Queue: 2 jobs
Job 1
Amino acid sequence: MSMRASRGVQHGRGGRRPVSPNLGSIRLAGGSQRQSSRTSQRRAESTEQLLRDADAERRRATVEGYRAAIRRYGDALDQLREAGGQPATVVQACSSRASCCEALGEYSMALEDLKEALRIPVPRPRKSQLFVQRAELRLKTGSIESAEKDLRRAIELSSGATPGGLAYSSHSRAIELLERLKNTRNPRPEPESTVSAAHEVIVAE
């Protein structure tokens, strides 16, 4: 018998018999896998609870609530990054924490969160919404040109959107904000009739 054919076989009085596998090693490996699975599940449940608590604090719309939400979103993001969480969940946590920072006037921190969120690959409608969110924040800080770029990017990503969806909402909001910027830079002249009427009042006086 060749060496290959004789593998897994022992010889004894009763002839050849298969070699039994190491059951102890198999049980140990199975136990380790189950333990790892339970640990991952507990971590996921902890992260979900942190996000729920953070959302509840944010909805309070108070200074204390925003600060508590920022802490909880931070803890949840740490766990998500460590565990390689779902991109959509990470983006939502970053976006929500950014809104809390914005409410407290902590614009630089909010911009950092949105910068991280925009680096993560997500569907175009969600990406468009993030650009609008950052544009509104940049308008508050006076970064007009950067805000305009974000709005145009949002419109590009949401072009062809059907009414009622997330992309359509972002598209409409971006167009609205761009129109406001245009009117701010180039205010519309008063209608001629109004100017004439004002002139007549002055002459009459």
Job 2
Amino acid sequence: MAGTDIERFSDPEIVIRNPLSPERDARALWLSGFAVNTRSAYSRDIDDWGDYLAAHHLDWTEATPPHVADWIAGLREVGGLSETTLNRKLAAVSSFYRWCIEHGANATNPAAAIRRGRVHLDPTTRLGLSRDEARAVHVASKRYGTRSEAFLALLTVCGFRVSEVLDANVDSYKWVRGSRVLSVIGKGNKPRTVPVPPTVAALLDR
């Protein structure tokens, strides 16, 4: 890819050469501010953007809004990606350039002015388990021990995400004002604390 000239941030400790490359400090530092799943998705998105720039012999600092619009239009024409995914790719590129601007590595954000596609959510695709399905899952989990039963209870009763439960530790489970709660890092790397009902707490306390 083009962009072999060294760019130096206002922070003297950070030196980058083609910051879109996976091994570069700028990219790693930018990604470090996101939760694991977001970090993984944004990394792929930046790879896609870097491939577009390489195919068009563009340095990352030379990209303009029309280039970003053309990139997204090309992805949309190929098909297979939802508007939600395309919007995330735009958000990733815009976030990266904004981060670079804040650290003195670039002057403009070519993705900032690109309008996001409209997403039409189908509520039927976001339905959770029915009461009978949830009950069946709980019955099945008992065959695998208390740990599995407690894990499923945190998901289905308390509404935690799988990643939130996996990242929680003993210190995350505590008493607050006479009630059991579990503190986790949720979507967007935001902390949240959720009450744990007595039936679920009994499983966790075993």
